[in-house]
Amino acid sequence: MWAYIARRLVLLVFVLFGVSLLTFTISHLIPADPARYAAGLEATPEQVEALRRKLGLDLPPPIQYVRYITNLLRGDFGFSIATRRPVLEDLKDFLPATLELVVVAYMLTLIGGIVAGVISATSRGKLSDYLTRIPIIAGSGTPMFWLALMGQLTLYYSWDLLPYGGRIDMLAYPPPTVSGFFLIDTLLVGDFDLFRQTLIHIAMPAGVLAIGRMAIITRLTRASLLETLNEDFVRTARSKGLTERIVIYRHTLKVAFIPVLTELGLQFGWMLAGTIVVESIFAWPGIGRYAFHAIQFHDLPAIMGVTLALTLFKVLSNLLVDVFYVVIDPRIRL
């Protein structure tokens, strides 16, 4: 297994290189002038040209790319045009908030989707089957931005149950940075009031991010479980007098979970991309909102940094799924 993981990590370098080249090429095809955005609308043509030379934008694109890769190998992600800070520092500041949001949404998707799928499969054709599937499927067919806005309209403006956005209240001080995850850092310092506040703030954006993915996991869990219940080993287990609960949760669900695990690996990457919409609406200070502003300013170093960071986590999540295959089913060899 360790040799397989090492090979995948080596291939990760080539994946990141390919993604960086593709992103760089597409960014240079967009008819926009980053130097003009950085200098401001009031800047003279001479000032814009001076800034273009300072940023290296006057060089041919191939030379710009070689220079970028050379600096990247030294750990230099470049300088953000929008924030006027090193991109690596921006990623360190904004990435933990996004990962915390995605992890919470992922857990909601995992637990909610599997539970709903099991209930739906074990009560096939009954009222509980339809009551379980209809709300989730309806949520999956709703555009994310509309679902987020309706959530703010009802849960915040109308009912005042949840805050409209942000990680904590505006007047509250963030916890001391240990992991960057407020839910973890508040527990480490014993600030349970701030923990409750963080949990309330993350509930709505994580729910919006999770509900569409939850429908996919519910449908896949239901279909996979129904198919597995017709296998010979299930009939054998039932013939031995085992209860239906033991047959499902001890024998059937583990086998039915393998295709669900594959989809969960894909959904993690989708959630990372979906944070751009969610974070922009809920004023969540994460990498998605950072990417949105970088695109507005045509901030190439920031766009490249965000793309490489998201690609890294996406590939690592796929690798983790492959390792879990072996844990769940020892018959599988990497």
Brief descriptors of the model:
single chain; 75% helix; MetI-like fold; mainly alpha; 334 residues; globular
Could you walk me through the main structural features you see in this protein, from its secondary elements to its overall organization?
This protein is mainly α. It has a domain at 95-286: Orthogonal Bundle (MetI-like fold). The chain is built from 13 helices and no strands. The protein is globular and about 85 Å long. The model has no long low-confidence stretch (mean pLDDT 87).
Kindly summarize this structure in a few lines:
This protein is mainly alpha-helical.
How do the strands and helices of this protein lay out in sequence?
Blueprint lengths: L1 H28 L4 H6 L5 H11 L5 H13 L13 H36 L4 H14 L3 H15 L23 H7 L3 H37 L3 H8 L4 H38 L5 H10 L3 H29 L6
Poorly predicted runs of 5 or more residues: none
Q: What is Rg?
A: 24 Å
Counting helices, strands and paired strands, the structural category is mainly alpha
Beta-strand percent range: under 5%
State mean pLDDT (0 to 100 scale). 87
Full CATH superfamily name of one domain: MetI-like
**What's the shape?**
globular
- Oligomerization status of the protein chains: single chain
Q: What is the third-level CATH name, the topology of one domain?
A: MetI-like fold
- Measured as a percent range, the helix fraction is over 70%
The tally of beta strands, per DSSP, is 0
CATH architecture of one domain: Orthogonal Bundle
